[in-house]
Amino acid sequence: MPHQISPSPYADDRECSVAELQTISFAKLASCDPEEQHRLMIAAEQDGFFYLNISDLESKGLWSDYQGVLDVMASWFETPMEEKVKFAYGSDVQGYKPLGLQTGATEKSKDGFETLRVAQQGLDWTVKPLPGQVLASKELFNDFINKSRMHVLSILSSLSDATGLEGEERYERSHRDDGPSNSSMTFHRYPSRKVRDSDNVGHNKHTDISSIAFLFAQQWGLQVPARGAQPEDDAWDWVQPKAGHAICNVGDSLRFLSGMRFRSVLHRVMPVAEMEHSHRYSIAYFCRPVHGTMFRDSEGRMISCDTWFSHKFDIYRATHEEQRKNTILTGGIESAESRSRIHSSVVV
Known about the structure:
- By secondary structure, this protein is of the alpha+beta class.
- The chain has one domain: Jelly Rolls (Sandwich), CATH 2.60.120.330.
- 29% of the residues lie in helices and 18% in strands.
- The protein has ten helices and 14 strands.
- The protein has helices spanning 26-30, 34-46, 62-76, 81-84, 132-135, 138-162, 252-257, 305-316, 320-323, 336-347; strands at residues 23-25, 49-53, 95-97, 114-119, 184-190, 203-206, 212-216, 222-225, 236-238, 245-250, 267-269, 280-287, 294-296, 302-304.
- The strands form three sheets. Strands 1-2-10-7-12-5-4-3 form an eight-stranded mixed β-sheet. It has a four-stranded antiparallel β-sheet with strand order 6-11-8-9, with no helix packed on it.
- Helix 3 (62-76) crosses helix 6.
- The chain is globular, with a radius of gyration of 19 Å.
- The chain starts with 22 loop residues before the first strand and ends with a helix.
- This is Putative 2OG-Fe(II) oxygenase family oxidoreductase.
- GO terms for molecular function: metal ion binding; oxidoreductase activity.
């Protein structure tokens, strides 16, 4: 079980190009510190990705909860496939997703991860129930989900403060607790090379559906475009895992709700040296707006967040060729024309 931060994505001493991301203090956000709120706003506008320090008392033991649920999930992922697929409901918010249902990080490949999703209230569902190992630790998982949500709502509230929003215009109002949503906690395992097919490669580049993605990862693999790089450069920086920190990023929904002010960033997951012999794990809470929230998407349409959610998952499962025909996969960060041009130049 990986509880130690891996020293490098590479097996040798090669230099590693690492993304320079801001670190935001959750303790300061919780106290409504205006300077920290401003720093958060700048990070959301310029980088779209940032670290959130969750090691202080204000985080109420979230990092410890993370390590506890990681132990449970690492054990469950070792369950035989015939047992895991009993929870494969075909749902994008609850249940199991096997390897290979989406595109991978290289052309013609399939994805290299399996996932168990838990809907916001999914621990209580009797329809599409969760595995017994998860339900046996229901209190721990409930605490972990609720604390993660509390952190994300604090981020949204801080962005509302920093941008001067009031009333129903505030971002957290589109994510209120009394409204149903597609928010979910997802547990990912990227199996080691020893137990997966060579055609299953990482996670294809994409922007997230969510307003905020709140990621826990102690292993390398996550990449973002290199600072200043153009799409045709295909240049990527590694995102360094940090103990006691969540990796947060703006997703499509918040980008659209902000009128494109905040930056939803492309990212992908690539295999690293450690995965020759070890599995890679990550856990992400995806906070999404309440059902019926409207915004203008990257195709210029006024649609509900629910429709965007459905379209995005459909395009995740499409072929690489189909994905290049619109802006949905990359949230408008790359145009369909530019991605087709890039692909053509690579093929030639």
